[in-house]
Amino acid sequence: MPKIVDHDARRAELAAAMWRVVYRDGVGAATVRSIAAEAGWSPSALRHYFATQTELLVFAMEHVMAEAAGRFTAEARTGPPREVAQRMLEELLPLDRQRVREAEVWLLLAARAQVDPAARERMTEADEGVRLAAELAVTLLSGGQPADDAATARLHALLDGLTLHALLHPDRMPPHRIRDLLAAHLDQLAAAGAPS
User: Per-residue pLDDT for 107 more than 50?
Assistant: First the structure.
C-alpha cells in the first residue's frame, strides 16, 4: 500500500524549520540546503515543495502576512481611536526581533519583485495590506470619515520608509524612535481630522 503523505503537514513542518533558521541566523541564511538540514530532510525532498529561493520567500511572506494579521486581534481594537491606530500600525513595523526578521523577508522579496512574477504578486498583496491598514488608521483618526487618499498615501509611505530605515540603519532608527515618529505623524493626522 502506498504511503499517504499529508502535504499540508509537511509544508507546516518546513515553515517551522524555515522560521527557526530565519530567527536564528537571518533571512539570508534561509536557503534550501539550510532549511532542509534544519527539518532533517534532504535538499531534494525540500525542492519538491519549493523549487526556488523565491518560492521559499513567497511562502515566508505568506507567513509574515498571517502573523501580522494575527497580532492585531479584536481585543487590540478597543480603546481610543488614536491608541488603536498606533497599536495597529506598530504591528507592521520592525520593533522586535520577530518583526525585524519579517521585514527582512519583505525587503528581499521586494528586491525580487522587479524580475519575478510570483514575488511581484505576493508583494502586491502585502503592499495592499499595508495600504488598507493606513486607510483604516486615517479613517479612525478622522472620526470615521472616509479616508483621504493623500493622507493614506503619506502614512503608507511613512510606514514603508520607517521599515526600510530600521533595517538599513538600526543604530539611527531604533524602536523607540520609530514609535516616536509614528506617534508624531498620527498626532498630526488626529489634529487635522478633529471636528471643529
Answer: yes
